[in-house]
Amino acid sequence: FRSVAIEAAQKYIGSVCAHLDVAKQVDFDCKIGSGSVDLRGVFDQSAVLANDTSFGVGFAPFSETERLVLETERFLTLKLKKRLPALGEDVKVMGYRSGNDIRLTVAAALVDSEIKDGDEYQSVCEEIHDKIADLAPKITPRSVSIDVNTADDPELGRYYLTVTGLSMEAGDDGSVGRGNRANG
What InterPro entries does the record point to (predicted)? Predict the structure, then answer.
C-alpha cells in the first residue's frame, strides 16, 4: 500500500501545482499506521462522536456569506488562475458579515517568476481585488469590502511571493481555523 499511496500523492500534487517540480522539489513519505493510542478507543464506543480532526461534519444550506467565500475561492482557483499565471495554487478566502456588510480577506500566494517587480505585484493584487468586486454583486446584494494579502508591507519589501505558488515552502502547512462553530 505504501507505493500506491506515494504514487497517488505524486500524481495529484503534480496535477494541481503548476509551478512545482514534484520530482525535484518534493520528498514523499508514507506513514500509515493504526493511529494515535489516545484516539483508538473513540472507534470502539457505540455512541456517535465527532472529533474535528477525524470526522467531517457538515450542514446545509450555506449562508450567503459562506456561498460568497466558496464562490470567490472557486473563481480565483478555477477561472482567474487560468488568465493570471502569477496567481498560485494556495488561495485562502475568509468572510465575515456584520449586519449588511461583508468583509472578505484573501490570502493569495503569487509566483515570483511571473512578476517582475513590486509594482507588478501590486497590480496583480489590484486585479484580484477588482475581479472579486465584479463577482460579489452576482452572489449578494450586501456591501462587500475586500482585502488582498493583508500581511504585505511594500515599504519593507514584504510580499506574499512564492517560488511554487504554495505557502508550504515557507513553513505554512495550511492549518487554518475551519468549522469552529457548533454546526461545523
Answer: AdoMet_synthase_2 (IPR042543), AdoMet_synthase_2_family (IPR027790)
Rounded Cα–Cα distance for residues 102 and 140 (Å): 9
* Range with lowest mean pLDDT among 4-8, 31-35, 128-132: 31-35
How is residue 92 written as a grid cell?
A: 485562502
Which one, of 69, 97, 87, 92, lies nearest residue 151 by Cα? 92
Residues in the chain: 184
Domain count, the chain: 2
pLDDT tens digit string along 19-64? 889 899 889 988 776 665 655 655 566 665 554 444 455 678 999 9
pTM: 0.73
Hey, which residues does 146 pair with through a beta bridge? 104
